[in-house]
Amino acid sequence: MPLMVMLLAVFIDPVKADTFTLSLTTGDDYPPFTDRKLAQGGMATTLVLNAFEKSG
Q1: I want to staple 41 with a disulfide (CB 3.0 to 4.6 A). Which of 8, 18, 45, 52 is the partner?
Q2: Could you write out the three-class secondary structure of 15-46?
Q3: How far apart are CA 31 and CA 44, in angstroms?
């Protein structure tokens, strides 16, 4: 068992979080889901923005 633990320690790298930029696009003129004229861009836009904000 100790040998297996040592082997795993050698071959397993620590998890590294990389940052990246994610760009999302939506269609326009689909009220109430997406539309530039709606508050915060519409329900779908608000939902996505809130989800990303809460996830960090």
Answers
A1: 45
A2: CCCCCCCCCCCCCCCECCCECCCCHHHCHHHH
A3: 10
Nearest CA to 43 out of 55, 25, 31 is that of: 31
Q: Which residues contact 41 (CB under 8 A, 6 or more apart)?
A: 26, 34, 35, 49
Residue 54: its pLDDT value, please? Answer: 92
pTM: 0.55
Region of residue 15 (left: phi > 0; alpha: psi -120 to 50; beta: else):
beta
Q: Which of 56, 47, 51 is nearest to 26 (CA)?
A: 47
Cα–Cα distance for residue pair 52/44, rounded to 1 Å: 12
